[in-house]
Write a structure and sequence with these properties.
globular, single chain, two-stranded antiparallel sheet, alpha+beta, 48% helix, 181 residues
Length: 181
């Protein structure tokens, strides 16, 4: 349990002390340096992903695959099969993660979960202004996977009455806009 005096309610942060294996800390330090961020920021990012996604991976039956495996699975898949697969999983993971993390489906909770979930595929850039959120996912696999991600997000948006449009789809990247209802 942390000391209540270590809470900064203005910033929503908590100071705490922890012991790490020296080798683990060295890796974190090198990684933070390579990303030009502090070790504190890196640890917050890692723990944030764990709390939002990784701790629920077993509950929602997530598995890890290499990009090579994903490319081989999706490469050459026709549009009909991509659409069928998208309809089977369309937004299910996002909805489950929102309720597991927040217990409430709101637009902001959904956008948060979508960004965290998208990090499974590669680099993610998220920007927002007013009621529009842009999410770009650089997955680096194949065009069919981009189409799958586009269809999956479109189906999820339709189920939740959210306006969504794909503004870029290519073999490496998909960029989408989401508008708050």
């Amino acid at each position: 349990m942390t000391n209540p005096n270590n809470h900064d309610s203005k910033n929503g942060t908590v100071n705490f002390s922890s012991r790490l294996n020296k080798d683990t800390f060295t890796v974190l330090e090198e990684e933070a340096l390579s990303k030009n961020i502090s070790v504190n920021s890196l640890v917050n990012n890692i723990l944030g992903k764990y709390v939002s996604l990784d701790r629920h991976a077993q509950d929602i039956e997530l598995i890890s695959l290499t990009k090579r495996a994903v490319t081989n699975i999706f490469n050459g898949m026709d549009e009909v099969r991509i659409k069928q697969l998208s309809e089977e999983v369309g937004g299910v993971v996002h909805r489950e993660l929102v309720f597991l993390k927040f217990n409430e489906m709101t637009f902001d909770n959904l956008m948060y979960v979508m960004v965290i979930n998208a990090t499974r595929y590669g680099s993610v850039k998220h920007t927002s202004d007013d009621s529009k959120h842009n999410i770009c996912i650089h997955h680096g696999t194949c065009m069919e996977f981009s189409n799958f991600l586009s269809q999956t997000h479109k189906i999820m948006a339709e189920h939740l009455s959210i306006r969504m449009s794909a503004i870029n789809i290519d073999q490496n990247t998909i960029c989408m806009e989401f508008y708050e209802p």
